Amino acid sequence: MGCLGFTGCSLVGGRQALPRVSIVRAPAYGPAIYDIVRRLLVEHRVDVRGRRVVVKPNLVEFDPGATINTHPMLVHAALEGFRALGAADVRIAEGPGHRRVTLDLAEAAGYFETIPHFEELFTDLNLDEVSQVLLKDPFSRLNSVYFPNTALAADLLVSLPKMKTHHWVGATLSMKNFFGLVPGGVYGWPKNVLHWAGIDECIADFHAAFPRHFAIVDGIVGMEGNGPIQGNPKSVGVLVAGRDMPAVDATCCRIMKINPASIRYLRLATGPGGLEEAGIKQIGEPIKSVQTAFDLIEPFQSIRL
Amino acid sequence: MDLKSIITLQNHDGGWPYHKAGGSCTEPTVFALLAQLVSKGDPQSMERGFTWIRAAQRQDGGWPPRPSVAQTTWITALVALLPRDVLGRTHFASAVEWLMGLTGQETSFVYRLRNELLSGDISNAAEARGGWPFIPGAAAWVTPTTFSILALEKARRFDTTGRIQQRIEAGRWFLIDRICKDGGWNYGRSRVLGVEAESYPETTGQALLALNRLQPPYLEKALAAAQEQARRCQSSEGLSWLQLGLQVHGIIAEGPGRQLLCRHVVDSSLQVLAQAALHGNNVFLE
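The joint structure predicted for all components is written out below.
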């Protein structure tokens, strides 16, 4: 598979360029998000002309508020943004880990109301056709995984997670969001086989399995405490975006006052020293200006930055 | 989607997809057949469906979720809910054997030893380890356990050794062990990292169905929780499971007072099955 213009590959002129991560203020879920997302895509020179884009939000639970799931307005803004850039096809796709009733979840989260023709644009990855993919040098105990064909056929897979703490891995951001690519129709609800194979290791494996990706993290309202479901809302008022998902997630961790080096899947994905702040080119707001400590449950107190 | 519409979605190969124009999968095919069995379906459609199901069986006796997956999963329990004499005795018997041989990964000696030595956790008493996983190599969960119990209940009358009954009892203990504080069932444990888990409509309905022999007072709280869930249910699939689960305990569930949309063949078929159960024909019972 070649390294396309919009992939996570960052070799420029034979020299390793620093991954670029944008932090932009977005105080509320309002019409301004559409313009912010468009500017982010332009800023990162995301070229999707004639390409198939799959936007992957984080749909987890029935939630009348904006705490657990990626806000539908951000998903719609991404959809419109990629369309405006000339994408041939933009689909929204998700495979929730706990609940089978994906479309009902989406309806309760406001997706039908916010995104015109949502049902026609959406693929339930839990029930999609699948193909077996061999994992190259996996970190986990998995040698292969069945992935949904919709995700495999994407020229660009866009991770749109919520900025949340997570009671097993510390933080759930753009990389962890790829757990939703694993089909419940094959592995069940929850996708417990991934826990036995090593959660952090699987996250790192899936990141490697889908190299053509982009991330926009919904940090307008995140979740702190006992995330990813039973935590509390945390207003941060930012969107964080970039092509390099470990760099995006490391930046989010710093915003959350979590030490990225203490997140195992980030260490696995980048190797030693790959998460240094100096190794990421920050664009937009400085981290310090938006930094706010997320409450952490007892077992994760040691990951505090 | 009514029964006629469900039949219309049958693929040329005889199986059903989840959604229109999708490939045939085991789960929607089983549910479409069950829906037809309770409501005088189309005999030709059913025969083609059963032919598809028989052909999809794997050498190990179980079924994959779809032909492109080379792995037997919990779906086998769903297939074993089909009438033995229509499915075929050999097909049925090998499915039951596959189910009888499957337990959650937490039952492995290595896991138990590690868990007990490292954490001192002995709460997983032997009787609570009788559940089934979604897929071999993973832990046991509520949903596959309920379907395995229901399937084995159908197989029990052909067993003279008592071992099937023993396994059913172990599965029931697993479900009882997983009752949440609110009375219903989550998909897995009732407490995670010291925090109470909330119950779900789908799993609560399924568990009540599988605990059809259990009498009050053991289930009083569960029945109350299920009725409350039905009143505020947001999915057709969830409501159908609650109706099926409550019906076996003599309760007619009151829905949320608004129409819940069916999204695919499975929840549409479930709605047919729930309605049939309310008229005394619960296909999941022995």
